[in-house]
Specification:
single chain, alpha/beta, Metallo-beta-lactamase, Chain A, 8-stranded mixed sheet, 7 helices, 15 strands
Length: 246
C-alpha cells in the first residue's frame, strides 16, 4: 500500500494496484494557484496520473470536492462518498457514484471500506446539502488505515481499533476547523495507532502550524508524525513504513 501526499487533505492511495484519489483540491488551492509548476502539473496535465479508479470524498466543502468533476470525467472514476454527495454528483453532474452512510463495511476490489462518523459540517458552495461528514476506514490485505476527514476529536474514535489494528491514521492537525496537534495526539491514543500522517494544515493563514514543534510533541508521546511535502510517498509493508520523495 502506498499513500502519496498531494496537498492539503488530498492524497492518492495505491492498494492492490487500484488508485484512489482522496478529496481533490487543486484548482482553488492557494498553494497550487500560486505555483506555476504545480498548476501546470495538476490542472493542465491532470497530475500526470495514468489512471484514477476511485475518488473518495469525506464531505462537501470546496477544499475537498472542487476538482471532482475534472478528474472523474477524465478517468471515468467511480465516486464514493455519503449518500447525499453521491446523489449530487450523479444527478447534477451525471458522474458514476456509490453512496454509503454510517453502517457496515462494504467490499470493493481494493478491500473493505467503512464510512466513519466525523464531527464537522458538510455543504456545497452552491448551498446544496452535503449530508453527514465522515471519514473512511480501510481494511485491506495490505493493512488497515483510517482516514478521518475533517473532524474534531471524538470519543467514537476509540471504537475503530475494535474492528482491527491500524497501521496508520491520517488526521487533520491545523486546528480552527478541525483537531489541532494536541487533539490529534489524543485521537491517536483512542485509535491505538502511533504512526500519524498529518493533513489539513498550512494551506490557509488560519491553520498555520509550527511543524518542528508538532513533530516534537508527537515524539514526546512516543508517536511518529509524518508531515510530507507534495509528492512524497509513504509505503506501508507488513513490518515497516518507508518514506520516499518522488
Amino acid at each position: 500500500m502506498k499513500i502519496t501526499f498531494l496537498t492539503h487533505s488530498t492524497c492518492m492511495l495505491e492498494i492492490h494496484g487500484f488508485f484512489l484519489l482522496i478529496d481533490p483540491f487543486f484548482s482553488e488551492n492557494p498553494i497550487i494557484k500560486n505555483n506555476p509548476l504545480l498548476w501546470n502539473k495538476y490542472i493542465r496535465n491532470f497530475g500526470n496520473f495514468e489512471r484514477i479508479d476511485y475518488i473518495l470524498l469525506t464531505h462537501a466543502h470546496y477544499d475537498h470536492v472542487c476538482d471532482v468533476e475534472f478528474f472523474a470525467k477524465k478517468f471515468d472514476s467511480l465516486i464514493i462518498s455519503n449518500y447525499e454527495i453521491s446523489n449530487y454528483f450523479d444527478q447534477k453532474k451525471r458522474l458514476k457514484t456509490y453512496g454509503m452512510n454510517y453502517g457496515s463495511f462494504i467490499s470493493f476490489p481494493f478491500g473493505k471500506l467503512k464510512y466513519i462518523w466525523a464531527a464537522h459540517s458538510s455543504v456545497f458552495n452552491d448551498g446544496s446539502y452535503g449530508g453527514n461528514p465522515g471519514g473512511f476506514l480501510f481494511h485491506t490485505d495490505e493493512g488497515n488505515i483510517y482516514l478521518s476527514g475533517d473532524t474534531s476529536l471524538t470519543y467514537e474514535m476509540s471504537l475503530i481499533p475494535k474492528f482491527g489494528k491500524l497501521k496508520m491514521a491520517v488526521l487533520p492537525i491545523g486546528g480552527v476547523y478541525t483537531m489541532d496537534v494536541e487533539e490529534a495526539i489524543l485521537a491517536s491514543n483512542f485509535l491505538g495507532c502511533d504512526k500519524i500522517l498529518g493533513v489539513h494544515y498550512n494551506t490557509f493563514d488560519s491553520i498555520q502550524i509550527d511543524q518542528k514543534k508538532a513533530e516534537k510533541k508527537f515524539l514526546e508521546n512516543e508517536k511518529e508524525l509524518f508531515l510530507l511535502k507534495i509528492g512524497e510517498v509513504i509505503s506501508i509493508y507488513d513490518d515497516k513504513i518507508d518514506l520516499k520523495t518522488t
